[in-house]
Every structure is written in structure tokens, then in C-alpha cells.
Amino acid sequence: MLDHLFLTVSDTDRSVRFYTAALASLGITVRHDYDGKDGPPGHPDLKGFGAGGRIFFWLREGEVAPPAVHVGFVAGNQAAVNEAWSAALGAGATDNGAPGARLHYDPRYYAAGVLDPDGYSLEFVYKDWQHPQP
After folding, report:
1. In a domain, 132, yes or no
2. CA atoms lying within 13 Å on the CB side of residue 33
3. Which neighbouring-strand residues pair with 6?
4. Which residues contact 104 (CB under 8 A, 6 or more apart)?
5. Nearest to residue 13, comparing CAs of 80, 92, 82, 76?
């Protein structure tokens, strides 16, 4: 299990606005800013997002590398996938796969994809593991 992820973005203010809107329906609503001036090297000012008492998704400004990153966010149900996708598009994302079943992965895999303002591939995913497949 991962504890945290840093994503390098070209404009932190724009990205904070985007991710605040895009992640809210997934329950990722807690924000924390870390002032990196006294931290270890490689930990500049960070903009964090989290839920459930944890901050796990961090933004830092710098040179972006969209082809190198794909982030899948867990959704609690299909409606949350749909809402996150719509919110992301409304906040400036580019469509990268409308909500729907991803049968090539698994019959219980429901997801939607977008490209964030820097071109990073994001996926909002609900996996219905409560209903086992034969």
C-alpha cells in the first residue's frame, strides 16, 4: 500500500483549484500546505490532499512529465466516479474515457478518465468486489 505520492505541476495555484474540485466527490476534501523551507532536500513547498485523517496526495511546482504518471483514485461507488469525472471536466480537465465498465480489466471495474491541466492521466475507479465473479 502506498502512503503518499508527489505530483509535479506547472502551476500549483491552478492545480490546487483543479484537484479541490475534482476530488471532492471522492471524499478527498482535507487540504494541508507544507512549507518546505526547513525540510529535507527534495521537499519544497507542498500542497496536500487527503481523507480519513491522512494526507496522501501532494502537489509541488516544477517541470511536469505527464507521460510518466497515471494516478487512479478510489471511488466509493459508480455515482462518485461519474461525479468526479464531471467535476474534473468542469474544472478544466480533458476527457480521457467516459464513465463506464472496463470489461477488459474485470467485469466489476467501473471507471472514468481525464487528463488534468498539465496532461497527467487520472482515473476515478470503483471496483465492486462485493459481488464475486464466477
Report:
1. no
2. 7
3. 58
4. none
5. 92
Quote the crossing angle between the two packed helices 12-23 and 78-90, to the nearest 10°. 150
Domains of the chain: total:
1
Q: How far, in Å, CA of 4 to CA of 18, rounded?
A: 19
State the pLDDT at residue 42.
63
pLDDT of residue 129: 76
Specify the pTM: 0.90
Is residue 133, in this structure, part of any structural domain at all? no
3-state SS class at 36:
helix
Q: Specify if 42 maps to a domain.
A: yes
Q: How far apart are CA 102 and CA 104, in angstroms?
A: 5
What is the C-alpha to C-alpha distance for residues 90 and 74, in angstroms, rounded to an integer? 20
Q: Which domain holds residue 38?
A: 5-127
Kindly report the CATH number assigned to the domain that includes residue 27.
3.10.180.10
